[in-house]
């Protein structure tokens, strides 16, 4: 283990007590709760059917529609929410909301089918066929439900691990088809939708806001930013046999709202890579003149980065992520990096004020990417750098080891980025050392949850 000692430092003023993540999370909960109340009020104003099962069917259908609209907002990639909550958490919430949508709409179909079957005397299967043949929009709703079942099946972890991201993403796009079909069903057959002008206006506004958020965050904003900044590659620099850094420049980069610790979805516009988007973190704090990403070879796509020619145009979506200094709660920080997970950590070390301790976990000295930069940066900022080497087993970042390196760990914000196994182990260590949850920051930089 090697160490770069710190120089004397003056602590900066403490970070604001109001946590951005809590504010954004509370805002989302408040939006969902207010709309849940609005749905209940409009449903009650429309009147109740005599059949209890039909009443339950209509209510679950309305709440399924509400959850579907909320699910769209979660993945709209709206900058204000993304910077405060993080794409990984928003994606995870989207995933679990999706399962809630699926079960709610299944309940809607069951209640409606059995409710109408009780009145008509038909068995459930014949009743469902009759509704599809005689009620406008029901067949479209059943197609939408079938699409959601397929998307839910491929989103299960066991299935998700067995397919490429591009395949999963292509199948997931059918969710938007299901949304459109479900909305047309609600317009055609929804009693609450047509019960009053207020109800009609509410549902049109809700769906318009949800779809508008997706259009703005996923299409309009990326197109506008790329037209404005016109990113292109300026240099490709191998860091070692397996890691390469790509430098980019563009117009008005001082107006690009990127921070250290964030990532972009990068598309290098070459003949063989234009269609493939990869999430890579910034490995330097944005300075208004250039951006840099540092990537470890993990397949044909990342290996091809070594052959990118200077001048290649780049389409970048972002910046994304809440792994930033915005979430500091203490003047001083501990940064824990593993392997190539050091890239956002290196950028954070450059930007974070106060005294920082960086613990960099690698198997051997040769695996320590950007180590010379880290050493020089630590010296310039008066930070401590600890390079911890050795095999993964035994764990060299257990509670005793980490407490020896950073005795005041419980009084610092802690940023963790590395392989999943290491990250999980470090988070467990931090909990055992009594570091408050609000001071721990980790992000998976994932797209699909």
Automatic annotation (TrEMBL):
Keywords from the named record: 2Fe-2S, FAD, Flavoprotein, Iron, Iron-sulfur, Membrane, Metal-binding, Oxidoreductase, Transmembrane, Transmembrane helix
Needed cofactors: FAD
Membrane topology: Multi-pass membrane protein
Occurrences of domain FAD-binding FR-type (ranges): 226-326
Source superkingdom: Bacteria
Pfam families membership: FAD_binding_8, Ferric_reduct, NAD_binding_1
Endpoints of the signal sequence: none
SUPFAM superfamilies in the record: Ferredoxin reductase-like, C-terminal NADP-linked domain, Riboflavin synthase domain-like
Subcellular location: Membrane
Record-annotated membrane-spanning stretches: 28-49, 55-75, 96-117, 137-159, 171-189, 201-221
Entry keyword annotation includes Membrane: yes
Database matches in PROSITE patterns: FAD_FR (PS51384)
CDD domains: FNR_like_3
InterPro entries linked to this entry: FAD-bd_8, FAD-bd_FR_type, Fe3_Rdtase_TM_dom, FNR_nucleotide-bd, MRET, OxRdtase_FAD/NAD-bd, Riboflavin_synthase-like_b-brl
Broad class of the protein's primary localization: membrane
The keyword Membrane appears for this protein: yes
PANTHER family: 1,2-PHENYLACETYL-COA EPOXIDASE, SUBUNIT E (PTHR47354:SF8), NADH OXIDOREDUCTASE HCR (PTHR47354)
Official protein name in the record: Ferredoxin reductase family protein
Organism lineage: Bacteria, Bacillati, Actinomycetota, Actinomycetes, Kitasatosporales
